[in-house]
Input
Amino acid sequence: MTDKTWESTIELARQGNDAPFNAFVNEMYISRYHKPIFKFTGGDEALTREVYTNAITKFWERFILRAEPIPQRNISGYVFNMARNAFIDIKRQVKRDKECEFFSHQALNLARDYASMTCDDDSFDISPHQLEQEDYEMKMKLLHMSISQLDEKCQEIINRNVYNGEFLKDLKLELGFTGTYQSIVEKKKRCIRRLSKLMFKALESVKSPSAINSL
Amino acid sequence: MEVLKSKLRKFQNYDLSDKEINSFECKINDELMNQSYENYKFSENLSTEMFVPGYLEMVQRKKKSFLENLPQSPQIKKGSARIRSFLAAAASLVILLASVFMFVTIESDVSSDQLVSIAALESLNLDHISTIERGASKMEEANDLISLYKNGEYAEFLALINKAEESEMITLLKARGHFHMENYEESMKIFNTFNVETFPQRDALLWSLIEIELQLENMGNAKKYLNQIISGDYPNADKARVILKTLK
Output
């Protein structure tokens, strides 16, 4: 019964009607999740709320925003499992003194800077001025390095679409895409995915500070 | 690295299973591992933001709204909570005894081959293979393939797979498709192209190898892979122990 409600509210949310899903997650928090999460967080009320919120946000991101296939097994149990993952993630973040949060903002700013966009949103606690300049510059270098390792077409798409803001539909013929508009969108997706892999590899190769300095 | 990356991806999606969480928690305490996770998350966030500008902010805003609208928790009455804990403990004991009794009965009724098939299927984590593919059309493609595989329509599955762009997991399914169609030679040919050490979902590969080696009666190889499951403490290692005992 509960799984059916999950499924129907997810379906509605995917169609743009968020309200039933939001109401249902609140109801589930009280009736099902509060107690077990409260237990494994050691009786910390604020942490319980944070864990549940993180889990539900990830759930929303994956199954509503990205429309990933809904898990076939017990959805309520799956959400509880996501909460356990969220708890480990928070424990990890606390240990790293909010470094994780910092990195997430840094990724956002790096992407924006690369696309030459201005950051005028003040909804975040950490302002760009607080970012460590050296680390930031190193990552920008790695981003450029990673882009230069992509094939020519990918470099063109990223530089002209992301950096210059040119429309994909205008680039389509110029870059020799004879298929539908979707073909260049798919190509961009593949390029970005490859870029993500190259960036991860590059970041992994500069884990030590000496390597950073030698860049 | 590849094995690790699949775990990092799962953790970023809050998708680690109960068992995996425990072992991952120990690993994530390691500074280098933790840094790897940060690097992974960073590169994923960066590319997501480059692809869909404003994505991270949108998720943050939604999180904020979930948190703000979350109702206050109900007050737990201490007395009744104590009684309920006692009842829960008693019920758990009964369930535990019943499950031990049932487990012994079930295990003795199930053959090694069936156990291997169950473990192999579980390790594939079919529901989540498609989520590895980013991008709507890729996911759709993977979903079509997986539903054919799940329904046992292996011929259609193999016909469709030849048109698809293959990831490692999809290629593994292809090998398994040939196995189900009893094209053992073709299946083995694909299995031989895999590197067990670097395969992203190593336990899935190992269980599939065990399944085919048992079918081909190569007991030595099957035992070798079973031992790898046990020594790696992969999910279903307990099943591997049971099967290994029956093979001796």
In short: Chain B touches chain A through 61 residues (CB under 8 Å). Residues 180 and 246 of chain B are 24 Å apart (CA to CA). Confidence is low (pLDDT under 50) at residues 104-109 of chain B.
